[in-house]
């Protein structure tokens, strides 16, 4: 059976540094070496760790490593952000929507 580490890494082919995965999993109360059972993969902690990783990937730089280039288009980055926000919203960690803008002179 796969570990939490392997499961999170499988979300993308991008070379996510292990230190980033450690920070994400520890922050969510998970252990990288834990077995990725069905109950773990459905847990709030794991799902929020997935969201954290997707948010990280949305901001990840385009890189070349070992002759292979890794990059995301703007639409892929927006998709990562949207998926992360949907998970955060599901577990009550979403940002309240605020609308800003010009409302005229007579407020």
Could you write a compact summary of the structure shown?
The protein is mostly helical and 107 residues long. It has helices at residues 4-9, 18-27, 38-42, 44-59, 74-90; strands at residues 63-65, 68-70. α2 (18-27) runs antiparallel to α4 (44-59) and α4 (44-59) packs antiparallel against α5.
Tell me about this structure.
The chain has 107 residues and is mostly helical. It has helices at residues 4-9, 18-27, 38-42, 44-59, 74-90; strands spanning 63-65, 68-70. A two-stranded antiparallel sheet has the order 1-2. Helix 2 (18-27) packs antiparallel against helix 4 and helix 4 (44-59) runs antiparallel to helix 5.
Order of strands across the biggest sheet?
Answer: 1-2
Percent of residues in β-strands: 5-15%
- So what's the overall shape? globular
Helix content: 40-55%
Number of helices: 5
Low confidence ranges: 97-102
Q: Taking Cα atoms only, what radius of gyration do you get, to the nearest Å?
A: 17 Å
Please trace the helix and strand order, writing H or E for each element: HHHHEEH
Number of domains: 1
The major sheet is characterized as: 2 strands, antiparallel
Count all strands and give the number: 2
Q: Terminal Cα separation, in Å?
A: 61 Å
Structural class comes to: mainly alpha
Mean pLDDT across the residues is 89
């Amino acid at each position: 059976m796969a570990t939490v580490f392997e499961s999170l890494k499988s979300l993308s082919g991008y070379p996510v540094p292990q230190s980033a995965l450690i920070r994400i999993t520890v922050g969510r109360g998970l252990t990288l070496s834990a077995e990725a059972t069905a109950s773990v993969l459905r847990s709030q902690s794991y799902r929020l760790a997935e969201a954290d990783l997707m948010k990280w990937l949305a901001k990840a730089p385009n890189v070349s490593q070992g002759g292979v280039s890794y990059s995301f288009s703007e639409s892929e980055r927006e998709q990562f952000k949207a998926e992360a926000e949907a998970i955060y919203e599901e577990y009550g960690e979403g940002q309240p929507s605020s609308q800003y803008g010009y409302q005229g002179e007579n407020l």
